[in-house]
Amino acid sequence: MSPAEFPIDLPAPLRPIRLHGLAEAQAAFDAAAALGRPLVLLSPPGAGALWFRKLLETAAAARPGLSVAGVFDCGDRAGDAQGALAAGLRLLLFRGHPGAAARLADVAARVGGRVLTDLPPPLDLRGVRDPRAACRAWLSDPAEASPPAGPGA
To answer: In terms of DSSP H, where are the helices of the chain?
Structure first.
């Protein structure tokens, strides 16, 4: 699955999972597949766009057919957002200046992408002993959350 094939529409309830490596991505994919739930994966802030892209592609290859949205966290760095779009990522989280967010949203829309300015707090898998169990519990939680708003969304 290439980044262009990952959806830019987010499921509700929105239960994002922040991951830091392939083992965590595989755990999240396994949990989502077992529960029949869509998956929203969030990069760590400051991660490389090409690293995140490869992580998504590698994990998705093992679970074809699973609905997965990969959100690249740019923090407040517009240059990282532009680099992510150039790397083929289409769903970005940008928490910088609103004017910059609007300009980035215009650029992203031209390549079939979307810029988000907020997300509900994610499950962060850094240091979690059993990421598969944590993902299962997180994705099973009936807590409702709405998809985030972005410029022009």
So the answer is: 22-35, 49-61, 78-86, 98-110, 131-140
What CA–CA distances, in Å, run from 102 to 8, 40, 117, 135, 145? Answer: 17, 23, 10, 33, 24
Q: What is the pLDDT of residue 110?
A: 95
**Longest Cα–Cα distance in the chain:** 41
Domain extents in the chain? 3-140
Q: Which residue carries 């989502």 as its tokens?
A: 32
Specify the pTM.
Answer: 0.86
CA quadruple 130, 132, 135, 140: dihedral positive or negative? negative
3-140, CATH topology level: TIM Barrel (3.20.20)
96 contacts 78 by C-beta, under 8 angstroms: yes
